[in-house]
Specification:
about 180 residues, alpha+beta, three-stranded antiparallel sheet
Amino acid sequence: MAKTSVHELCLGCTTRSTLRGPSENPWSSHGATTGGSAGGAAAAIAARIAPVALAVDSSGDARAPASCCGIVGFRPSVNRYPTEGILLSSSTLDAVSIMARTVEDIVLTDSAMCKASRGEGKDARDVEEEEAIVRIQSIARQRNARARVAQLKEEKRKLLLSRSPPSSAERTSEPAPAGDDISGA
């Protein structure tokens, strides 16, 4: 359990705290934003400091940081999880959301939170939510595949750039192949 950096009153899109400074995006050395009010938690997950985090999301407050930090954010329907002890800015828009490295971690956390809050039974709402999670998993797999293709293309481009052709001076200074006597002897 830990506390991470957050905007005052959870209002902001950069996670630049006036008390603690900005949250650092673990995927960028150029000061890229961690995304929003839950950016500190997203950065902790992306840096493998934490496996999962909860955030309150009303307008992308968990999903945007997840996107900026390359992790998964899941905003379920309002009141899927209990909100006792949480200061909500809107009871009709705010939803407790989950952030994690993988969709599988989201599903595991969601399952545990639902069982803890509603007991072991399964109702129609559970079935609908499970179908939604399956759709999310499919989308995440597609996104991960596209990201991997882009990463491989970038690695190939860097490799090709590192293999620049030899200069003309390097080509002329190479020794003649064995058996070719050019001295006339």
